[in-house]
Amino acid sequence: MISIRKNLLFLISAVFIIGTIIASVVIFKSAHEESTEVFDGNMMQIAHVLSKTNSGIVTSYNGYLNDEEEVLIQIWGNDGNLEYSTHPNILFNKQSNTGYGEVKFKNKLWRYYTLNDEGRTIQIAQPYMLRNELILEMGLKFIIPVLLQLPIMLILVWLSIAKGMKPIIDISEEIKARDTLDLSPLNRSEVPIEIIPMIDELNDLFKRLGHSIQVQKNFTADATHELKTPLTAIKLYCDMLTRTTDNQKQKELLIKLQSSIQRASHLIHQMLTLSRQETEKFTDYKNEIDLASLTHRSIASHQVLIDSKNIQLTFLNHEKDTLIKGNDGYLEIMIDNLITNAVNYTPQKGEIHIAVSKKDTKTILTIEDNGPGIPESERENVFKRFYRILGSDVIGSGLGLSIVKDIVSSHDAVIAIKDGQNGIGTKFEIIFPT
Ligand SMILES: Nc1ncnc2c1ncn2[C@@H]1O[C@H](COP(=O)(O)OP(=O)(O)OP(=O)(O)O)[C@@H](O)[C@H]1O
Ligand SMILES: [Mg+2]
User: Fold this and answer.
1) Which of 83, 107, 222, 251 can pair with 77 through a Cys bridge, CB separation 3.0 to 4.6 Å?
2) Quick check: is 44 in a domain?
3) Are 258 and 333 found together in one domain?
4) Is the same domain home to 249 and 211?
5) Are residues 268 and 409 in the same domain?
6) Whose CA is nearest to atom 19 of ligand 1?
7) Are 12 and 129 contained in the same domain?
8) Is the domain of 11 the same as that of 139?
9) What is the CATH number of the domain that holds 268?
10) How much distance in Å is there from the Cα of 139 to the middle of ligand 1?
11) % helix / strand / coil in the chain, to the nearest 5?
């Protein structure tokens, strides 16, 4: 799992470490350049001072060069003989050139300065090793504080990141400590602006979640209420049945009982369809479905009902290609509900006209009847759950059209209720995208 805190610390530490390395190299380089200049300047100065004095005034050490401040001073006379040496046992040669130079002597690299003064040669020399010791010492004196500040800086960075991350941690603690049903918005006033979009998204999610929980609650309450009616009737008829001995009365009660059971089972069937459709609402339907043959199949399954009411049904389809993208199971439920409504609400000997047509690239299904129609003021309401227009003796739960609406919107289609032909009856029109 990615940790912002660890990632930040890693990146900032890397930047600090690289920075410290670069600073150390620069310090060493400049210490080296500066001290070379100082050493060389000293050598030249000594040579020039000595050229103004007589030989023999400088005490000879007769030892080795040990200290970085120590130099080998040699003076040759006009005759070319070595007149003086601070360290006679070091047989460093007189160099042929004058000025600065470098030469290897006894496996060490030496730096020298040779001055020719009216035939006399004054030569100052020193192994680089001695100089480097001083350069190293000087460099370390600068670098050690730089290195020492590194862990202190990293600790400060760690603490700063922890402080910077605190609002995020606080928010997650707040969410963790919440009651499951607490969907009140998170306070956005005390959070850094960078995480405000996240808080807004969360609050928006809480809002939608709250709404959907409320919808579910309403649905459960309505469903319970709706189920109560047929169940109370079933209980009542059962009680009456146990008490009556009259055959004719028993028959009547049994018919009523049957009707209540049918009502309850229809309601449960519609509720199950609705909740199944609800959970699969966001599925991406990619199957190619032939809308005309699906409609044909649905009409066929209603034929007995249509015939029993002597309804005249026509199905019009002149289109060759009526393919749409979708889920055939749900589309069939949708068409079934619309045809059932048309058949149920149309009186005996009524007419139903069903058509599949195309307009531009869109496929249109229309189901039209010459029944009582749906007043304009009710056209929005009939899509609501459990909503029924009073005054019809058709058994129903008021869920059919909300199931239809859900299926329509999950197919990116649109549904409209219009007047039937000559302003009589109802026309449902569903337009599918390509
Ligand atoms: N073709 C139609 N003609 C006249 N009224 C209709 C038609 N279709 C639906 N309605 C009205 O709209 C209401 C809601 O219809 P819907 O299909 O949602 O529920 P239902 O038919 O009452 O019950 P269910 O379909 O769940 O068995 C119906 O009660 C009815 O009053
Ligand atoms: Mg219905």
Assistant:
1) 83
2) yes
3) no
4) yes
5) no
6) 398
7) yes
8) yes
9) 1.10.287.130
10) 93
11) 55, 20, 25
Ligand 2 mean position, distance from CA 400 (Å) = 4
For ligand 1, atom 17, the nearest C-alpha belongs to 400
Q: Are 431 and 409 in contact (CB under 8 A)?
A: no
How many domains in the chain? 3
Query: Cα(93)–Cα(113) distance, rounded to whole angstroms?
Result: 12
Question: In terms of C-beta distances under 8 Å and separation of at least 24 residues, what long-range contacts does 304-308 make, across chains too?
Answer: 305/340, 305/343, 306/343, 306/352
3-class DSSP state of 222: helix
Q: Give the CATH number of the domain where residue 362 resides.
A: 3.30.565.10
Structure tokens at 145: 């504080």
Pocket of ligand 1 from Cβ distances under 6 Å: 266, 270, 337, 341-342, 345, 369, 371-372, 374, 382, 387-389, 392, 396-401, 426
Range(s) of the domain holding residue 65: 4-147
Q: Residue whose CA is closest, atom 4 of ligand 1? A: 373
User: Whose alpha carbon is nearest atom 8 of ligand 1?
Assistant: 341
In a domain, 112, yes or no: yes
Distance CA 14, CA 16 (A): 5
The least confident of 55-69, 211-225, 409-423 is 55-69
Does the pTM surpass 0.70? The reply is: no
Write the pLDDT tens digit of every residue in 105-162.
Answer: 989 999 999 999 888 899 999 998 888 888 888 888 888 888 888 889 889 999 998 8
